[in-house]
Amino acid sequence: MLERLLNPRTIAVVGASHKPGKVGHEVLRNLINYGFPGKIYPVNPKGGEILGLRVYRSLLEVPDEVDLAVIVVPARIVPSVVEDAGRKGVKALAIITSGFSETGPEGAELERRIVETARRYGMRILGPNIVGIMSTSKRINATFSGLTPYPGSVTIISQSGALLIAMAGRTWIEKVGINDMISIGNMSDITFPDLLQYYYGDESTKVIGLYIEGLKKGREFIEVARRANKPIVALKAGVSRRGALAAASHTGSLAGSAAVYRGAFRQARVVWANDLDDFFDKMLVLSLLRPPENGHVLIITNGGGVGVLSTDEAERQGIELEDPPKDLKEELRKYMPEFGSDKNPVDLTGMATDKEYYGTVSAALSHPWVGALVVLFCETALTSPQKVADAIVRAYDDSGRTKPIVVSFVGGPETMKAADTVKERGIPIYKSPELALRALAGLMEYARILKKGEPEFRPFGDVDRERVRRVLDAARAEGRSFLLEHEAKEVLEAYGVPVARTRVASSPEEAVALARETGLPVVMKIVSPDIVHKSDAGGVFVGVRTEEEVRETFNKIVENAKKYKPDARIVGVTVQELAPQGLEVIVGATRDPQFGPVVAFGLGGVMVEALKDVSFRVAPVTPEDAEEMVREIKARDLLGPFRGQKPRDVGALKEVISRISQLVTDFPEISELDANPVMLYGEGEGLKVVDARIILA
Ligand code: ADP
Ligand code: MG
């Protein structure tokens, strides 16, 4: 459907201006100068001729089909141009004009109107508020900037127009080859998922780079991104609290919390870029290299220092370095002095010249054990950087360019010049070993993404929706928008989440009967719609041992509650199974303005709250996503075998996260849910929710 927008045969420039320097003039000039092979039709009510092309007074006068109309007229005139375009049968509009939803409610109304008109005619709109479209393969520069990108296979879609143009310039420095560059602007009609879908089918695009400030349809983005047939790298701006505010006023879209975005992007199987440099580095490796076929990374260096730095970075990136197998070691040994090292990193020592580099790089690239190669060079007085550069390129060419290789050259001007020649030959090269390792990590992340299973969520069949419905309706009927603990637990239980058995007693006698049934000792807690934090009200007794104690505790709890809040309505006292102590964790859910229901996981306790050590995913969550979610918290070591304790039952935890994600998806009226704490036991022993809270929208 976007074919005519992104691969037009004819382009009209509506608002083409006679005056050089005006946007309407520059767009036309750039389009002509960059050599667009199709027809170009300038439109301006004044008529005449601009840059040797006849100007039409209106779109309706153009004597040809118009695939794409690039619109640069003032905002208030845009609606009538859109109407004309519709009547003319134009397929797509790229509206450069600003002054729409980014400016406030009035602009938003204007924007809504043009979208409505376009829909009526079956036209698609890119923008408004964009810098335009560039394509190196189709020779299109429909922007007001003469700065076109370095040609290649990456397509960048950017929510910031100025940054897009700046990035076009930078691609020449970084040698990141570009196919298309698309400014997406206010996303009034065409959104990120639409463009993703188009570029999955575009053979000239090998990698998609996204600069995102805020997503309008977060869920749709995940759904589409996770089915990509090529790598997607995303730079999400506005991850700081202040940055998020800046982005919101910038694009008129709300930015969700940074942690939610990070989780959602993992789920979307998108490679995350930390900053602009990282964005370029990752687009570069992914466009030039194939992901490694195995996880063995070999580092070859001529300097111990850069070797150690690269080892440190490898560890930070989760890349485990192993020593090469014996036969490879023997081969490598041939190219180093006695005091060199055949361990990983392989140290050729400062004596190494182009000969040693060629020999070892060739040996490593041809050995099946090596999945990816890192080649480091420190400028020394002994050898010419250019010769080393040539040797690396030659070895890579001779190997057939199949395995991924990243290079780092550290040194002065001569070394940097040599590095440029490596870059020009399509080998990613960086000015520090850390950067090389980071770029490689991006490639390995994509290799992991490729190995992931089916992204589809398979709902659990053994859930009891009606039971949940009844509990929610009953609370509503009493005018409550929150559930009492035992109700929240019943809801969880209906979805197959193990909870500590909880019943409500309305008298001491009933409490005793329930305790007898449950089995002593028990836990007893206050049940009151007016008491949220039960412990604060002296309303929690853990380990009530005898029937006599149960009776006393019942009265004590009621007494405490009345003291705490004299007008508190008291429903009764719960009698609960005493769950053995486990590792206390939290599984929660909330609603994000952009992604809808999201689930959260973290460890219980004050420390974790202070450290904000929580991971998020958008619901529903597959067990595979839940696994990642559990493993990405900082305190993850507590889940493994830790200080003589056996590993925790992560399998049960994953399932519960997944089940809760299904619950909040099935019941959109649940606006918040907290299973806190959940006692997590050793492997095979499961878990138990001991306190729960649910708030309804
Ligand atoms: P509050 O409303 O104050 O959060 P909780 O229900 O969370 O009250 O109880 C306080 C603490 O008592 C919990 O954090 C947990 O450590 C312990 N606890 C509560 N219920 C049980 C139970 N059924 N079995 C074992 N321990 C429990
Ligand atoms: Mg609690």
Write the layout of secondary structure elements.
Layout: H1 3-6, E1 10-14, H2 23-33, E2 39-43, E3 49-50, E4 53-54, E5 68-71, H3 78-88, E6 92-95, H4 105-121, E7 124-126, E8 132-135, E9 140-143, E10 151-158, H5 161-174, E11 178-183, H6 192-200, E12 207-212, H7 218-225, E13 232-236, H8 241-251, H9 258-267, E14 271-273, H10 276-288, E15 297-301, H11 304-316, H12 326-333, E16 346-347, H13 354-366, E17 372-378, H14 385-398, E18 405-410, H15 413-424, E19 429-430, H16 433-451, H17 465-477, E20 482-483, H18 485-494, E21 502-505, H19 508-518, E22 522-527, E23 540-544, H20 547-564, E24 572-577, E25 583-592, E26 596-603, H21 606-611, E27 614-618, H22 623-631, H23 650-666, E28 670-680, E29 687-689, E30 692-696
Parallel strand pairs: 1-2, 1-5, 5-6, 6-7, 10-11, 10-12, 12-13, 13-14, 15-16, 15-17, 17-18, 18-19
Antiparallel strand pairs: 3-4, 8-9, 8-11, 20-30, 21-24, 22-23, 22-24, 25-26, 25-28, 26-27, 28-29, 28-30
The structure holds adenosine-5'-diphosphate and magnesium ion (MG).
Residues 500, 523, 525, 533-535, 540, 542, 576-579, 677, 690-691 line the site of adenosine-5'-diphosphate.
Give structural notes:
The chain has 697 residues and is an alpha/beta fold. It folds into 4 domains: 2-237, Rossmann fold (3-Layer(aba) Sandwich), CATH 3.40.50; 290-452, Succinyl-CoA synthetase domains (Rossmann fold), CATH 3.40.50.261; 465-577, Dna Ligase, domain 1 (2-Layer Sandwich); 583-696, D-amino Acid Aminotransferase, Chain A, domain 1, CATH 3.30.470. It has 23 helices and 30 strands. A 7-stranded mixed sheet has the order 9-8-11-10-12-13-14, sandwiched between helices. Strands 20, 25, 26, 27, 28, 29 and 30 form a 7-stranded antiparallel sheet that branches. Bound molecules: adenosine-5'-diphosphate (ADP) and magnesium ion (MG).
